[in-house]
Design goal:
- 33% of the residues lie in helices and 18% in strands.
- By secondary structure, it is an alpha+beta fold.
- The chain folds into 2 domains: 23-129, Roll (Ubiquitin-like (UB roll)); 142-465, 2-Layer Sandwich (Creatine Kinase, Chain A, domain 2).
- The strands form 2 sheets. Strands 8, 9, 10, 11, 12, 13, 14 and 15 form an 8-stranded mixed beta sheet that branches. Strands 1, 2, 3, 4, 5, 6 and 7 form a 7-stranded mixed beta sheet that branches.
- Helix 4 (135-144) runs antiparallel to helix 7 (240-260) and helix 8 (307-327) crosses helix 10.
Length: 474
Amino acid sequence: MDVSSPTSAAQGAAAARSSGVLPARAYLDAHPETRAIDLLITDMNGIVRGKRIGPDELDKVLTEGFRLVGSVFALDVHGDNVDAAGMAMDTGDRDQKVIPVDGLMMPVPWAPQPTAQMLMTMVDERTDAPFFADPRQVLTSVVARFADLGLTPVVACELEFYLIDQARDAQGAPQPPISPITGIREWSTQVLSMMDLDVYGRVLDGTKVACMAQGLPVTSALSEYAPGQFEINLNHVADPVAAGDHGVLFKRALRGVARAEGLDATFMAKPYRDFSGSGLHIHASLLDGAGRNVFDGGDGSEIVPSEIMRHAIGGVLASLPEAMAILAPNANSYRRFRTGAYAPCTGTWGIENRTVALRVPGGEAKATRIENRVAGADANPYLVLAALLAGMHHGIVNRIDPGPPLEGNAHTLPTARLPRRWAEALDAFDQGSILKHYFGAAYHRVYGACRRGEMERFEGEISPLDHAWYLPVI
């Protein structure tokens, strides 16, 4: 990640147009075969929702938008309303207005019929102001605060995921894929295996082709620390909201391509008990008005965190306990945090240390940056970016000292432990003040209510493990 030459919003738009992404009407002129257009909006869970229209309905959407219930942003993972959030029955479940983000349309290469898609966002149907509960708008409001500091955040997402068999085992659990080369189910951990990249090249290469067609800045792919686990990186951009878009669209593209190739892809944080979890690592730096990376505090020969970088790190560490409910949003998320695993369990930072929450990677000094390693791949990219940037801004304006960088294994520390249970994380979120300040009290309340409602529903279920453990003996 060379933050000395980030992709600007203008460069990104130019790249999009050269990739097959065009203004909507121009896209349809160039692709008259298009039969359907998917209008996409992302809920609190990071799940893409919306509606599908025909090309004949496009003009109305471009000029007027369309109406959708505001409670779409107060759903649990099943798509059910969480009444405690107060956005459904309490409001009459009223509609709001959904409008195109930028009017750009992109192809959906994996679709069975010629299909295009557009990103949408919600605004208040009475005032046209950004709708408070749209995660994309939450991120937009946090990013705007950096303009007052004369700084521009540069961010990139790294997403880990599993390719899995479309068939589940006898208990309904996922299974590693059967190798299309050997016909044997994958079972071994071959980290950084080039052979695995070859074996699953149709999905990985197909995803890259689809992402490039959609103007997404995909870069490298690598085999991760479990059978069927991979990581594909997205290049850094000087537009965190665009980076959130990239994360959401990448997930949709990967899952679509995998299904077309006879596999499933999952961003579940911990699909297997005995294999590694999947993370969403965020890299972030800040540029000043002259385009200089203000995190570089040295003479250019080595990584030396600047004072402003130390303050940013201090702010993120201060916000991490309450941010855990964002970074680890569901019950399965917390199964990823185990002592000795690469998912960090302490609120610590260090230079070239993968056991800490905030790693300062090595490399060129001009690319000095923070890598937040806490979030799971199941988290909403918009909200993860918003939480990270809120912490950075909080630390900078309050000049928070993070203390010295940690050397050695952070898992052995008896202090600075992050919440490792869902209820504990939700308590920290509810009691916290940093994210409430940046996200707004209304959204903070809605998010906490939705997550707690889902937790209570999850804990009320009787699982097969209950029967296996207790039925025979009690």
